[in-house]
Amino acid sequence: MENELKVVNTMSVETPTGFRTFNLIDGDITETNDPLLIASSWKTIGNHVGGLVIDDLKSSHNVDFKKLTPIVNLGNGVGTFEVGAPNDSLPWTLLVVGLPGVEGIDEPSPADRKLYSEGIWTLFGSLAALEIRGENYTSMSMPVLGGNREYPPEFVASTLLEHSMGWLKTSRSMTAINAWVYNEKDLSVWVEAMDSVLHRHTISSTAGSVAQALKHEILAQIQTSKLYSSSPFRVPSAGITQELQSDEISIQRLATFGRILIEQIVRELVLSQELSWNGNLFEGISELGRHRKIAPWIISHFHTLRILGNETVHGSPDKHYVPPDLQDSDLVPVLACLSRILSFWESWRAP
Fold first, then answer.
1. pLDDT at residue 138 above 80?
2. Which domains does the chain have, with CATH numbers?
3. Which of 53, 124, 185, 237 has the smallest C-beta neighbourhood within 10 Å, fewest atoms?
């Protein structure tokens, strides 16, 4: 059985070629199933590298970092390099990003921040170069790059999200970027940093009797059905469960996990009806509606959760909607749509 990702936070974007996600992961990055693995080093001068993930890779997979081939190199050890290895000797392609360190500095200077951002840029510039070279990767894993070097967590999260989502919007092949937190004790710091960058907030999970009833109903639906413990539903179902079992619920995070789940449900429905699926959820739902195979009110629930879980339509201070973001009162509609879709999917799949 493949190793399961423990997704503790997620951001999504809808693109012309399909749905793309940035995930924050709790676990051991050296056990990733992604075809592309990124490690970071405090610069890479003279092919000398070092770092927590690099040290783990040396011991767990006997990786030799002596042969580094530059892809995008800014000089002075800052850049992205490919690790040379015999064919098939590693389960993934391995890149090393050389980044500047700021240990012992209370506040990185603007020059420090600029150099860090340029180092991150070399990674995504390298991904573009690899894709042009014909190396297409559907997903990749990286640590929270430079996250233990005293850069402010919100600055790191903001930089990684900006570059990651920009790449996911333009890449022909990559659908997911997974950022792993090395130390479990730092997990809450990075979850909060990501939520802060995305302008998310949380509310008490005990708020309102209707919300409470729906929450328990959804947890029972997921936990008593084998449907949601199998791929590709397992990861978003686990994210929904994790959110609903928490003392504080992020409506945006819950809606995003729900949006990821219905992506998989709609895909299965479209393919089961031998209709056209091109990876676009809006078109997939519309296709189901046009063929009148599913009740229009269920189609409406799909569209509602699609919009509520689409990060690009809310959560940004430059949006001038009224209201500007999901409100606490939106929790009940999110839960109600999710519960109805889960019960519909269960009945559809029932023998």
1. yes
2. 7-197 (3.40.220.10), 202-349 (1.20.120)
3. 185
